Amino acid sequence: MPSAGRAAAYLGLLLLGAVVGVAGGLVQAAWFPGGLLLALLGAAGLFLGGTQATGTRAGAVAPAAGWMVAVVLLTASRPEGDFLFGVGLGSYVFLLGGMAVAVMCATLGPGRRPGGTGAAGARLGK
Fold first, then answer.
1. Distances (CA, A) of 56 to 11, 117, 122
2. CB 96 within 8 A of CB 42
3. What is the pLDDT of residues 81-126, one digit of tens each?
4. What is the pTM of this model?
């Protein structure tokens, strides 16, 4: 179980991920080529920054989960027929690109190593 401070950091990253998802959804549609790049770079910065701030892969997973929930809720149509994302290449690139960025940042994050923190601690039989 994470400590209270670490749990609060994960919760803050989750909420910040939701904010970045909503902002990215608005920006990518408003300024198509540049806004899409800005939205994906903002998400990547948050995900990678979360791993650096917490020192764990969960630091990227928490904001990615918030981003994903916000973006999925924005893609759902309402009973009135309104929705935020239009059908187009930019929306699909934002959705799939954001997921790919989240996976890459979570994979690049520091993981647990058995028996120590360095490469020597991970060697077996020495």
1. 14, 13, 17
2. no
3. 666 666 678 788 888 888 999 888 888 767 655 555 555 555 555 5
4. 0.78
> Could you give the CA distance from residue 30 to residue 33 in angstroms, rounded to a whole number?
9
pLDDT digits (tens, 9 = 90+) for 57-76: 888 899 999 999 998 888 87
- pLDDT at residue number 115: 53
Q: Which two structure tokens, joined as six digits, stand for 40?
A: 């994906």
The count of residues in the chain is: 126
Q: What is the token pair recorded at 93?
A: 């690139």
Residue 91 near residue 85, CB atoms below 8 Å: yes
Q: Which helix (H) or strand (E) holds 25?
A: helix 4-30
Identify residue 116 by its one-letter amino acid code. G
Closest CA relative to residue 103, chosen from 49, 72, 57: 57
How many CA atoms are closer than 13 Å to the CA of 106, on its beta-carbon side? Answer: 13
Contact 85, 35 (CB under 8 A): no
Which tokens hold the place of 18?
Answer: 């939701």
